Every structure is written in C-alpha cells, then in structure tokens.
Predict the structure.
Amino acid sequence: MSQKNLIVAFGGMSPEHEVSVLTALQAVAALEESHYTLIPLYITKSGNWLTGKSLLKLESFKDLKKVASESIPCTFSHNDLGQPVLLELRQGWFSKEVAHPIHALLTAFHGSDGENGSFQGICELYHIPYTGSGVLASALGMDKLRAKEFCKNHDLPVVDGIGFHESEWVDSRDSLIAKAESIRYPLIVKPVHLGSSIGVEMVEHREDLIRSVETAFRYDARLLIEKAVKPLTEVNCSVLGSSDKNRASVCERPIGKEELLSFTDKYMRDEAGSKGMASADRVIPADIDDDLTRAIQETSRTIFSLLGCSGLARLDFLVNSNTGDYYFNEINTIPGSFSFYLWKESGIEYPQLLEELIKLALDRHSQKNGRIQSYETNLLSEKAVKGIKGLKTSK
C-alpha cells in the first residue's frame, strides 16, 4: 500500500495543552507500523503553527520554548492541483517551501480552540478530511451548558444547575448565589468550556462557593453550578461511528483519591504523566449491574446521535450509588488517549481504532464532497453589465 500523509494535529492555546501532546504522541507510537507518513502539526501555547520530525518525539517537549525555536513554521494551503497541503514556510533566499499533500488529519486537541469546532472549521475551508466530530457537534460538545440543555429538552437525565457569564456574576452576584443555594449544597462549580476536571470543585458552604467561582473565572468566562450527586460513582462510556450508525464500548469506573475525580487523578498519578489517561486508575468493565450498563451505553449512543457527532467520543455519567439513578455529565468529542483503553476491552486494538477513525473521516469527507458545491449561473456577468451603481436598486 502506498504511503499517504497523515497530519497529526495537537497542542493548542488551551490549559489542556500538555494532555493533547500526550494523546498525539500515543497515537504516533500506535501508528508507527502503519502505511502512513506521519507529519506533525503542533500549535504552540501562543498559537504558532509548527512542524518537523522532532515534534514526533516526546523528549522534544521537555523544553517548550526550545522545541518552538527548532521547528518549522507551517500553514495550510493548496497546491497547483487544488489538493490541500501542509506548507512548510522556510526562510532564506535559497530555501524552498515544502508542501505535503494531505490524505487525512488526525485531530488530537483537547479543549478550547482545537476541540470546540474552530479548528474543524479551518479544515472544512481547506477541504481537509479530519477525524472526530464536525463544527456544530464539536461546539456543542465543548459547551457543557448547551449540551445539557439540549439533552434535557430531549428528556435525557441531567442534574439541576444554573449557568452564567462573568458579567452576570459582577452585576447580580447575590441573585446567582441565591439561585445556586436553592438547588442546595453540596454544589459543583465548573467552567463551561474546559475538560480534564480543570477548575472543577465541590463546595459545601457559601464562602467556598464564592471562592470557587472566582477561581474558575480564571479559566473561563462562563460557569456552571450544579447539584452534586452523592454518594457518587462516575461511569464513562465511549461511542464510535457516525451519527446514524455507531456502537458503544464497555463502560469504565474511574477511581480517584477523592469522590470527585481531579486532573491529578487523571494524569499525574504514578506514571500517568507519560501515558495520559491510559494509566489512570479505573475498573474496566465498570463494576455496575448489567441493566445500568446497558442503559448508559444506550444513552451514550442516543446523545452521540442527537448532537450529530462523528468519529469517537467519550460520554461521562454521574451515578447515585444508593439509588442507581444516572445523569449525563459531559461529552468529550476528542477524549484523552482517544479512550483506546475502553475499545481495547471491547475487542479493538489501538492501531485498528485509529484506522477506523481515519476511515470515518474519509467517508464523511467523501459524502460531503459528493454533493453539489456550486450553482452554475451567469448572475455576475449580468450584474456586471449594469455596473456597481445599478446594484443599488437591485435586491
């Protein structure tokens, strides 16, 4: 099979930057024996686009400033054949720009501009096949408040909560506190647009609520305050496929030192810093009864389809350990480590999982481009006869 260029895009202007690097390089290691030529697209914390072979090695990222200075600036473009390319922007009189035709792009961003649909929109503009969900589903998935409102409107279980903007907190703090306290403590405070449990805290009193809100606003301009589920069991499930045809993985029960799983629990325990989510403590399959497992799997597929997701996502649920009631918590349209550990237990090895993600991206791209992309008309030639002035009276 001939070599094809696979762009691995990661990094980004996000608090989850380092986690994205881990996810991307795990995927690179899994694809080492594949027929793809792997080309990195690393976006720095300041938003610069870089490429270069050294970016495919984890040790290169020990010094982020150094790796940025030693890499090659790049951008998307099109070659003379109209193909999308990753263009190396080399400097110097005798340097020649190098263009890499793009077969497909593996999105490995977490949070902010890489996962919220904005980068996906760039790929759409350049007609680049990319893995994961499209613009709308990515944006909905990143917005915890909108995703929960959407699910609630479709009679899917979510916990009670309120969402608000920083300006509302400044103008109407006492009113928002009263609304939050009407839900009753304990409460969970979380940023609307972040993942990896960054900025998330459980609070029991008003003083802690105010402090936690002020802290969370350091990460996001919109927050969500929700009723805490106690006693809590967290259960996650991954879905793979398209919005009209997909399947669910086995479920997992993550284990944290505290009842609420933290960033440290997910990435910093033992050797998790080198392995991403794959080494976080977890029980797979989740030690919950079969009826609850099936209910969460089916709900996961329903939400995946309703949001119009594609590729792969992980859906997180909160379960009341006493009653067995479960609630949709959030969807991760680009989950850490691509949730390969869930699919391995479901019978799909990591390289095979990535191949399926790429195939789904190519299929979606092909279906989209199979539609009519333009409408043949002589409108401009007719308008040109009248000139610009003539257009003022034409509507």
